Amino acid sequence: MIMVRTSARTRRTAATAIAALSLAGLAACSGGDAAVPGADKGEQDDLLAAAPVASSLPAGSTMEKIKQRGELIVGGSLDAPLLSQQNPATKKVEGLDADFGRLLAKYIIGKPNVKIVNSASETREALLSNGTVDVVLQTYSINPERAKQVAFAGPYYTSGLVIATKKDETGIKAPADLKGKTVIAGANTPAIPAIKKAAPDAKIITFGSDPECVQALKQGRGQAYVQDEAVLLATAKQDPSVRIQGRPFTSDPYGIGLKHGDTQMKRFVNDWLKQIQASGLWAKVWKNSIGTVAEGAAPQPPAIGSAPGSE
Amino acid sequence: MNVITDHLAEFGEGLRLTVVLTLLSLAGALAAGVIVAAMRVSPVRVLRAAGMAYVEVLQNIPLLVWLVLAVFGLPEIGVMAGLFTTAVVVIALYQGAYMAEAIRSGINAVPAGQGEAARALGLTFTQSLRLVILPQALRTVVQPLGNIAIMTLMNTALAAAVGLVELTAAANRVNLAEAQPIWIFVGAGLAYMALSAVFGLVTGTLERKLAILR
């Protein structure tokens, strides 16, 4: 059940790929994981090259144990497009959560060595508390209930509901632009009250499933479709005729899950997040994943410790 | 109980749409039913076959499938109608198949002598059907048609699946905001019951007035 991606396997894949030849030198010096063939991944190598490494690790800390082990074990997904999805051709896991995992690994170990253990929303707390994984990076919404079982560093990203339109739509950039428009939403989703709040006179039509909503949007039954960002990212990546407009307009803060009570590591990870936010690396990670299907510049990163449950 | 009084406007709008949807669909279904039933008893073989094919195709595919096909499939071949129009047409055509079968059974219940006498008087097939057979046939099947009317009312709830905010969808939305499913859906259920009670009363009255005692 547990799917494991080892860096050795990645190295082997990289070595067999023809395009890897040009990157072979890079692979040797960056520890393998970063050296994945493909011209468009050049940016990701830049990301890792610019990524900071912690100057010192407190003795006896969790971080020191991770460094001695030589890889960071991350609870995550392999099937979430633009967040954490394994590329079947290269076996590399790509996306926002995956990039943050590699950057954190580099910060602790000096090399972006990550092992992803496939976790599910029901198993994350258990995997953290029994030490199977070091961190969880998996669209893990911070809330006070969960904070009783795990520690949350971050929030590192604020997701929520976003607006999707057809590619050529220019008049809808923000929730206020939905005024007087026909808006598609999934039946019985939180999008319905959110649209009513943002644009009370918008006409809402609902369909049972996400593919139906997307189809209705493409057929012009409504000018916009409001849905959770993680769902729409997958749609937009698959279907170039759909575009995400603007940023999430409701707030769903994602945190990095850590073992409950490990305040030392939480402080350490929060410091790292502040560093990469300040250096602009955070924005580059966003540009590299979500930014490929969302219009405009990177959003303002969330303030560390701002979400209830992450204090 | 507050959840219902607080959202009377939403429920009212949903109820109005359900009633309009039902009445328009019923009118369409009755027209389609009469035409298809006439085709099925006509002396022209092609028409009989077409009528039978209509009934079989419409009845043997669930209404929800028809609705989804019409709403998402037709635009792909360039036929784009509004959600409401699409729903009315689809429900009318679907219920029309049931109507046709009920009316056909009514036609079969008219004694053969009636048709023979009409033809002997020199009426054409259409004339004898229109003036002699159908008036008697329809009076025989008031009760089954009333049942189909109630079935049509219930089936309009499926339009909620293709984006129409009729009574069921309205109840769903109120429940999403209030999370009190029992009161909300009991309320919607009572509204449906009241509507079908009206249909039942109308059917009963019509039958008492129109029934032919044989």
Overall SS class of chain B: mainly alpha
Distance between the termini of chain A: 34 Å
Strand content of chain B: under 5%
- What composes the largest sheet of chain A? 5 strands, mixed
Structural class of chain A: alpha/beta
What is the residue-mean pLDDT of chain B, rounded to a whole number? 93
Helices and strands of chain A, in order, run as: HHHHEEEEHEHEHEEEHEHEHEEHH
Mean of pLDDT of chain A: 83
The outline of chain A comes out as elongated
Total beta strands of chain B: 0
Radius of gyration of chain B: 20 Å
Give helix % range of chain B: over 70%
C-alpha end-to-end distance of chain B: 50 Å
Order of helices and strands of chain B: HHHHHHHHHH
What is the overall number of helices of chain A?
A: 12
- Unreliable stretches of chain A: 1-40
How would you describe the oligomerization state of the chains in this entry? heterodimer
Largest sheet of chain B: none
Written description of the protein model:
The complex is a heterodimer of chains A (311) and B (214). The two termini of chain A are 34 Å apart. In chain A, a hairpin with a 6-residue loop joins strand 3 and strand 4. The longest helix of chain A has 16 residues. With 311 residues, chain A is an alpha/beta fold. In chain A, 36% of the residues lie in helices and 20% in strands. Chain B starts with a helix and ends with a helix. With 214 residues, chain B is mainly α. In chain B, helix 2 crosses helix 5 and helix 9 packs antiparallel against helix 10. At the A-B interface, strand 10 and helix 9 of A face helix 4 and helix 9 of B.
